[in-house]
């Protein structure tokens, strides 16, 4: 009996009238956990009952504690007939199982009914007494922390990143069970809600077990999804990144600092530095350095090092097509292995690879769901890798053996892994998985960014290697290092134009870079970024079974290719050279496929300037055509020029001779660079690249092409004062103020015209997305200047003629006056690190001689030209110096944190005396002036409801997260049989979304929190039948509940007193 | 091809004050879009008509969902469905309970019943306030009336606490409730020149001085019903006009005081007995509910109109009433000084307020 759960029902308010005669309600409450139920007394004739019940005690296994929700049902007592249910509250008690998270759940919860929505509120108190259980073979994983946040959470530091964890559980969908024919919709909905709650509890517990096995204590970037497969069942699956996190004392909070001002001191470097006291077991020997962390696929031992090409026919599933990607797999794998074997590669790279292999390649899936990393962790980025596969759903016969689904995902993951290898990378970051289901066809998709990571974070206690680590460190500054190619330039996996890095001039970079991660905070960016979307509709014939699946998988590569071309064209048009946060969604409907690619375009200073777009006609002789082309060309050139101005892209003009122009080919040239391994290599034959031309060429050969160009030019710019991006924050904006507004918007468009063309559909779809954006700008105009961040578009084809677009994003205000400025901390920190370098010089000089001896020689052989050897060697030294300096800085910070803070602050003040307030903002991400307004707005009036902020980002501007209270993962169903009366389908969904927000806020407030970060709406499935006056909607949301305080420049004491002022209900849990 | 569904939900509920006003004013979505377009909001953010329509629909839906809460404003503060900053809650409530003077003037003193509600379309046509808005305002009156009917304690304070209204608006509502309860006649042609604010002021005077609450503040309906005992006592004032000596004495005292101070002195002297009879008769008749209803029309007919035809200025009026009231204290045989002051205090300020064009 390792746990005792206690619940107390205090009171209710705003209950609905259940007895028409008296206009009152005789309410009582049933409290249920597992199979035990308690009841309160009936509180007669009151809409605001006071039960003040005793403590109901449940003695349960911690396994149950993790799986089961506490179920509270409010009923109206009826003497003569059956008691009427008013509604229910499900409370996930998982946050109480973690010692560091919440200690009590107490507050007002909305009473929710799947038919009537929210019907009043109930005040509940829940506590858990957990007994220590030392059983090694336990089934529970209490104490493992879960975070939706896809970066290291703000008040922790990553001692070790263990790697990928995944799990899936399957069950029959209650909606499709025979009993559903005889039970009420309410009973059916509740059965479903309860089942999914149970399944996600179970899933979380199982993942937790895996994490414990790996020696970790937390899952970061936890992504849980539902597949409503209809007849064939219900799948709940999750992926995440297992980590060992150390809690930082709330006073020091260097994480917030390092995130925003990462240049000050890459935390990673401190860890293995030989001079370190080594008091912290940062890379503790939790794990014996055996065969690597166990993964769920231990049963498949062969697959780890060289995945064999998939055989086209799988015995385990009725796989209709072996997925387009199979075709590409074989050549890629060959190339990848060639690269990683390092036959022709420079010795340095080989060494680096060999080293990282020990850490990573023994893992079955070196995947990371994180999108942003501690400084120093990310070494190089290769490009986007993605894989899709079309499957036919089959009834899940045995829920306890979810092997078919597991095998499907394993295939996909193997493919991703081999793609990454082909790019010369050993890891995949920013990894995510998704599905799209229509009837019995299911598209499984996975994507991520191939990358090379600094292995130190993952190595299991091999300090001897760690001490010599710096020798193999890439000698590149953090602001451009990640752009340098990880693959061999002589053995490139795809055609690409390489140039020497425009920032450091030492390493090769591609001309364009696509990634799924957030822009590394230390990256050097020119100008601002913007949201870039490619949208595509493809009609397909209605079909059944295998024919349908084949048709879809035949279409997929073309869609990906076209989305790509669009992205590339739009990127060029905006004069940018890199995409971050790329997310490509392909959604399947009965008679069409929708593709939506969203990303944030930026101009990376390290990458070459993009060439323009050149229009070429097919028939050069035709004069009128020529004229036409000229006008289009002019419009495009104008657009590019305008965009340059709009996004303030003024790259520093570098003189060619200064660099020595290491690459003989014309620099401006750019081609369709498919840095992310496309699903099919066949497509390279369709390559749009046109040899040695200067600019990216668009050929006008038919009307379609004209249309394409028109659509390219019709993308509206955000109105003045607005920016938009789909990454965490907007590249190029640094001075966020505390105004935020999270929102969800859903639009469904009905196509009435039966015989639509692809072009017509494209136009409709594009307009739909563009109009949505316009609506946001208009609605949020009072927040100008502001930026829409983390714009997350989800498309679906719920019915034959419907297109549904769901968007969740956050609008954040920023200080307009300083948008032009680069943050002052960059040059300053550079300066300071330089001075520190000088300080360290004598020390380092002797320490470094040995490494300097080996390094230049190995380095040079990896570089084709030998003209600039000396400068290179010097820069290598510089790199290692810088490395050590930051090590030293880190040490200094650990030892004398306050001193460092103080000195940095003053140096900044002197830099920008004109804006004293802004200087404060820069040294801490939390502005003084604005948080004051935040506090005042909170204290305004005597509202009894805690204000809960919500954001899809991992942080709140101007506010510091001091405690993570646990994951919020909620699933709701709402149904109505009086659609018209509820204001039609819009009214129905509007109130449902508002209700979901309200329930999330209430749960967070009850945990003692005042904000939700990394919030996302995973699922919003709407089914309607206006003729029957019915509709049903399912929503799944998740996020991290946190306590946060406004950031002050003072130390902890001050911020602690703040808690009391800002979040009265959060105080008990704060310390 | 059509947008089948279009919703936008913010964690903090987004409300545009301009659209809220249009919604309160009973504009349809399409009319509201037209008004907004004319207002030039489109230029603000490069919006199109579609965007405006979508936004207006969203906002209207939000307001409709909020309306239930606005009916009991206290709920708005501790409901969980909408996260609305407190200052915005205040604005929402204040605006929702605000009313058009033209409309309130029409229903002032009428019974807040179904019958009156049926006539709202006529009122709407007459005042050019939309029917929807008329209904909201009427329902607000009725709701406030119903709630405070059963409450003890001061009327204005009750309204303010239950509906979280500003002091000014709470006082206006108190006036409306008071008028509706006593069914004062305000609709006659002769009373048309009076504004709602004139009546609201008078209501305030009556509530503060003539109701039960003026003497005892813990009775039910204390501020709604007139003090019956007081009304009885008013009959005693009749002596001022029935006793010939007293009347003459009163007149000479007033005339002595006024002589040379006003151009209208002659008219005042000539009309004294008429005017005095008028005021005292009003007082004496107030025991009849019917005459209470005619209180304002009587004041106008018996006092204000005669003075106006004699072209008294407002200053004249003030001077006359002050001396008229004060002189009664000097009358030896007049024993009802307290009642007289309580009566004349209100009459004086009411007439001051009502004496205009």
UniProtKB/TrEMBL annotation, chain A:
The keyword Membrane is annotated on this UniProt entry: yes
First and last residue of the signal peptide: none
Pfam families per the UniProt record, alphabetical: C2 (PF00168), YbjQ_2 (PF23025), YbjQ_3 (PF23028), YbjQ_4 (PF23128)
Region called Disordered, residue ranges: 250-345, 651-678, 905-939
Principal place of residence: membrane
GO molecular function (one): calcium-dependent phospholipid binding
Compartment list: Cell membrane; Cell projection, Ruffle; Cytoplasm, Cell cortex; Cytoplasmic vesicle membrane
Keyword terms of this UniProt record: Calcium, Cell membrane, Cell projection, Cytoplasm, Cytoplasmic vesicle, Lipid-binding, Membrane, Metal-binding, Protein transport, Transport
Biased composition (Low complexity): 313-330
One CC-aspect GO term: cell cortex
Any single GO BP term: protein localization to plasma membrane
SUPFAM superfamilies assigned to the protein according to its UniProt record, in alphabetical order: C2 domain (Calcium/lipid-binding domain, CaLB), YbjQ-like
Chain ranges of the C2 domain: 1-109
Biased composition (Polar residues): 250-275, 909-921
Protein origin, superkingdom: Eukaryota
PROSITE patterns registered for this protein in UniProt: C2 (PS50004)
PANTHER family noted in UniProt: C2 DOMAIN-CONTAINING PROTEIN 5
Protein name per its UniProtKB record: C2 domain-containing protein 5
Organism (species): Stegastes partitus
From TrEMBL, chain B:
Domain of life: Eukaryota
Native source organism of the sequence: Stegastes partitus (bicolor damselfish)
PANTHER family: ACIDIC FIBROBLAST GROWTH FACTOR INTRACELLULAR BINDING PROTEIN, ACIDIC FIBROBLAST GROWTH FACTOR INTRACELLULAR-BINDING PROTEIN
Descriptive protein name: Acidic fibroblast growth factor intracellular-binding protein
GO biological process: platelet aggregation
MF terms in GO: fibroblast growth factor binding
GO CC terms in record: nucleus
